[in-house]
Write a structure and sequence with these properties.
The protein has 147 residues and is an alpha+beta fold. It contains 6 helices and 4 strands, in the order E-E-E-E-H-H-H-H-H-H.
Length: 147
């Protein structure tokens, strides 16, 4: 069983914008996901219900993509990650997630494109340096897959 606990800041859980979410933790592996109030002990609602109330939450779509990737539901993961990228094209970690999904699918060309987007947004951080190495390794796979 997967539980995603989102700890939002503020008073009204159902009306919180995604940017007020402090953190999220994936604890297990199905769609039984709960959202809890951080400060005022509000009753949990399901993550699906929260996401329905906040359909334009890039963070919610990103977390759903991570959850589906963890469950190896790659099509659902890709769908959620693409929605997150559409909603927040300036978030490097969305492209990292997309690259992980594409690597699992052995879609190396798409993974290289995702890593390029990630590196463009975050070229100099340690994670950006790691992305550069993964990109080089993945590009090598692309080159070797064409006889």
């Amino acid at each position: 069983m997967t539980t995603l606990i989102l700890f939002p800041l503020g008073a009204s859980l159902c009306r919180l914008p995604a940017h007020q979410i402090e953190r999220a933790t994936v604890l297990a592996a199905d769609r039984t996901v709960h959202v809890r109030g951080w400060e005022n002990g509000q009753n949990p609602i399901s993550f699906a219900a929260w996401l329905e109330l906040n359909p334009n939450s890039w963070f919610g779509q990103y977390e759903l993509g991570k959850l589906e990737l963890y469950r190896m539901h790659l099509d659902a993961a890709l769908d959620a990650a693409r929605k997150a990228a559409t909603l927040a094209p300036d978030q490097p970690k969305v492209y990292h997630l997309l690259s992980l999904i594409h690597l699992r699918q052995k879609n190396y060309q798409a993974a290289v494109a995702d890593l390029d987007a990630y590196i463009k947004l975050d070229p100099n951080s340690p994670d950006g340096q790691t992305a550069k190495q993964i990109r080089a390794d993945t590009e090598h796979k692309v080159d070797n897959s064409h006889p």
